[in-house]
Fold:
Amino acid sequence: MLEINPARLWQSLMDLAQIGATEKGGVRRLTLTDTDRRGRDQFVAWCKEAGMTVEVDGIGNIFGRRAGTEADALPVAMGSHLDSQPSGGKFDGAYGVMAGLEVVRTLNDAGIRTRAPIEVAAWTNEEGSRFVPTLMGSGVFAGVHPLTEVLNQKDVEGISVRDALNQIGYAGKALPHKLGAYFEAHIEQGPVLEQTKTTIGVVQGALGQRWFDVAITGQDSHAGPTPMETRKDALLAASRLVIEVNRIATAFPDYARGTVGFMQVEPNSRNVVPGEVRMTVDFRNAKDATLSAMVEELERNVVSIEKETRTEITLQEVVYFPPSEFAPDLVDSVREGSKKFGYSHRDIVSGAAHDAVYMARIAPTAMVFVPCEGGISHNEIENARPEDIAAGCNVLLHAVLGRAGSA
Ligand code: GLV
Ligand code: MN
Ligand code: MN
Structure:
């Protein structure tokens, strides 16, 4: 049975992880930075070495393409992202891209031609950490976000996506194209597979998400003379909000999740009652109706927190996508691939967003999960076992080959 080269896949992941490597063994490769550029350049070089042609589109998505025998057959694509969180790991995103490359290298070694072309995509700004929205590149490709709109998005320093893309030389000209299917391999980023000693997660779909930018306005005032009962303490309001987000996500059903991961306090001086806070809210759920109910509950609480703290709170929605379901026949092919190799497997729902969420809107899509150590991700200590990394890629190889058809 055709198998990938585990050592080569692992080595590529480790080589890529040198670009933006952090002291604690993780990766800091923020989207559209010079470090991201170096990661992209490496990927492009590897694609060319593997005989692929390379195209870049207007939002900087990179597509390596291996020709098929039927020129007009729609390509079967694999991929994920090369950008990382500020303190990210070696596998989140990089695995899906390197696994795609390893599939192509394996087909090359075996001299296998496919009927449909095969593509390996590296999507721009999956993480949504430096620029919102998250899933930016795949969102533009799938027609979810207009290109001009996202090019104008700015990071906290006021640098636009357009300028950052031009700066690293990845503002390409390729237009979006049709895909016959899309597969994405990824570490689970949660504890289920490891805890159940399962090698392959057969991903059914992903949680829906609603993200908000929150601005809280109170009034700066002196920490000594200002009586407690007249303060307009924006940080007190923010703290109440953090507790509410956590309470709502704990109380609601259907895989509810709620996170405040970003906060800026002004003027951030120890003897000034803080007058301004900017923070974020990230809500997730497996059911769209429950996701909406979580938001309504938050909005109700905002009104009472404003009153209690004498502050003004605005919520601006910056990301919304409903829960997604992947294509049953492709999901089956992931399950069948696991069976073929005798890997333990189980159905799983993704708590994380993936570019596959938007690909599912334009092409039949499926994902392959493998376990990660302690279920920890978005952390420099993120880790995965080489044998699991290889297993996921073997499943990917057979699922892709099944869809692309050997010539
Ligand atoms: C992407 O990493 C997410 O937030 O799910
Ligand atoms: Mn990811
Ligand atoms: Mn991530």
